[in-house]
């Protein structure tokens, strides 16, 4: 099983690239987000997920282990194949995926080509319980955990308030998380809402 490849980008296609490793070319399928950052002749190091089937061996490449783990979670959802998983990873980064699952932001998943409302809803419903206890990306120090946001807390109440004001679920969650990091775990709902609004305000409009 191939778990990692380090070499040079030989070519980049619509949904894959060829990695030259000491003269051997490996065809690796990847997300549009990752492919868009690569160029022919540049060095590359990819975390690899190897799928072995009766009629083929496919390699799927990722920027890091975190992105690969999301690919595994997504393909574990009924109806989500490798193509759909890569499409989702093409429009949502790892932190955005976690935000979308926590806040049950079905619309975020529908941005991926080929993902309709039913499948997007299933992804959120099946993943929300599987990621309980996972820290919110780089905001691990904020004290906000997946379980808190789902079960209900001042943070989730603040997120709901911002969503009711017209903000997207994912951006509201990220703003409240940033506010919680600044204010501490004992912050009240109204404090989180006010600080969240500051986070969401255009930077040039904040005095």
Descriptive notes:
- The chain has 207 residues and is α+β, with helices and mostly antiparallel strands.
- 45% of the residues lie in helices and 18% in strands.
- It has 10 helices and 5 strands; from the N terminus they run βββαββααααααααα.
- It has helices spanning 32-35, 65-75, 82-91, 94-102, 106-110, 117-127, 146-151, 154-164, 169-183, 189-200; strands at residues 4-12, 16-21, 24-29, 43-52, 57-62.
- Strands 1-2-3-5-4 form a 5-stranded mixed β-barrel.
- 33% of the residues are buried.
Concise synopsis of the structure shown:
The protein is α+β, with helices and mostly antiparallel strands and 207 residues long. It is 45% helix and 18% strand.
Annotation keywords:
207 residues, alpha+beta, five-stranded mixed beta barrel, 10 helices, 45% helix, 18% strand, elongated
Number of H/I helices:
10
Q: Describe the global form.
A: elongated
Mean pLDDT: 84
Q: Give start-end ranges of low-pLDDT stretches.
A: 133-151
Task: Tell me the span between the first and last alpha carbons.
Answer: 55 Å
In sequence order, what are the helices and strands, one letter per element? Answer: EEEHEEHHHHHHHHH
Class inferred from helices and paired strands:
alpha+beta
Number of strands: 5
Strand order of the largest sheet: 1-2-3-5-4
Please state the CA-atom Rg, rounded to the nearest Å: 19 Å
The helical percent reads 40-55%
Query: Main β-sheet: number of strands, strand sense, barrel status?
Result: 5 strands, mixed, barrel
**Strand percentage:** 15-25%
